[in-house]
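Changelog-linked ticket: flavin-adenine dinucleotide example.
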Amino acid sequence: MAAFDHVIVGAGISGMTAAILLAEQGRSVAVAESFRKPAPTIRGFRRKGVHFDTGVHYVGGLGRGQVLDAYFAHLGLDRLLTTVPYKADGFDVIAFEESGREFRMPNGYQACRDYLCAEFPEETKAVDTYFREIRRNFDASPFLNFERAFSMDGFLHDDTITLQNFLDSITDNATLKTLFSYQCLLYGVPPHNALLSTHSLVAGSYCRSAHTIRGGGHALAKAYEKRLAELGVGLFCNCEAGDIVLSPEKRLRGVQLSTGEVLETGSCIWTAQPSALADAVPEGVFRPSYRLRLRELRGSASGTMLFGVSDSPVPELDGRCRYIWPGGDFESKLEGDPLPDDNLIYLSSCLDQKSGKTVITVIFPGTIASFARWEQSAYGDRPESYKNFKRQLAEKLVATLRRRCPELSGVDFLECATPLTVRDYCSTPQGALYGLRHSNDQYNPAPVTKLDGLYLAGQGIVAPGVLGAVVSAYLACGIILGHESLHQELRQCA
Ligand SMILES: Cc1cc2nc3c(=O)[nH]c(=O)nc-3n(C[C@H](O)[C@H](O)[C@H](O)COP(=O)(O)OP(=O)(O)OC[C@H]3O[C@@H](n4cnc5c(N)ncnc54)[C@H](O)[C@@H]3O)c2cc1C
């Protein structure tokens, strides 16, 4: 039986971040990952010699000295990554199909504010209030604003204001509300359930800057792997963590792997789905109500994705994401069927370094409901009926794209991923694109559990996205190592 100071369950962004932080302090660390390689969510895949990104297209706060840049510097990842800025004059384009109007969101709070004030001169007060509130919420967290003295009060604020309530209180302008809300697609919860605090973290980071990483999620995964190897972290891939093992005194003793091996430890950070912990921890440790709460946690919106290639660049997507807004409300788009013709479309692109081709990812948000009849099937072993359904769905979605996005006329679509693919690839409930939903109708678990030495981290604990996953790891490791010292070190990296 191998023994470690810390065992991390899950080699996603949060698990690998936690492993680096602990190993940098000279602790022995093991990471157990159920997939055959670390970081399946962001690693992407290859088809016909071209690499396609999955779990990361662009990130906020990666400008020099900004929050994610400071985290990557502190983790020793900055020297292993090349960042590429999105277009400063419009990193996101929101195209309103009904009116034909397009809005290009520029980099920086002031530029965004000035741009929207010019587009909506009668709404200056609402625009100012929106950006003031986003910034205030963002800067209130010591994990996002290292200038702030460290205090957990500034982080775990008991915020229950929804984005919708906030927007309703500042404007009646439907177009402006859509422009204030579209980033809810980056955490998969409609505005009437989205917390203003979660929205502020996501929108606030992109307001500062938007970047992609050269080589995409694959390059990010490789950089993390390299750091783990440099620090001598034990990586156990193809090893699903099953039971949390207790000593006869009911103290944490280790983590049992699917191989039968037990990784002995008195300290475990669980970054896999929190709901899976309900079955992993022996009866009697958690209260029945907590166990039930874990089991019933709901995921964010899912979606169906198309992956395509183009021999020539697609100027509309060069250094920008593009959101096609058909009208209606976010609730029906995120929590409805992803199939109808009037769904919203989220487009991004990147350059495949090896082939020189432009790679296009399209997401049609929606739920897993249409795929319920195949929910017992697993990735790589689906019945013919599913394959036929998926083929017809892909044809319909490509036809929709040809009609609604003429800029994609030269794109050859090679692959389709359904909510079931997302569920099995990203190990998320209901095929959630962003793990657990952070919303006003759900209490996500805290990083500390009732079992001494067992902690939770991951996108479901703090916030979704690369930044949210990284922050969750610092939160869990701060409990182990001391928040103040980590905060001081981060301040020096900013
Ligand atoms: C299509 C898509 C696009 C996205 N685009 C962006 C983007 O542009 N920008 C952005 O910031 N974020 C984006 N995200 C979100 C981002 O990828 C995630 O928030 C982040 O990767 C989550 O990291 P994590 O470590 O919390 O979770 P995960 O990556 O889910 O890590 C958990 C790990 O645990 C493993 N695991 C599960 N169960 C077990 C077990 N029992 N034993 C061992 N291992 C286990 C899983 O295989 C997984 O590797 C996107 C996500 C998707 C799906």
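Closing comment: Example verified and attached. The two ends are 41 Å apart (CA to CA). Residues 9-15, 32-35, 40-42, 54-59, 240-241, 271-272, 276, 422, 426-427, 433-434, 458-459, 464-466, 469 surround flavin-adenine dinucleotide (CB under 6 Å).
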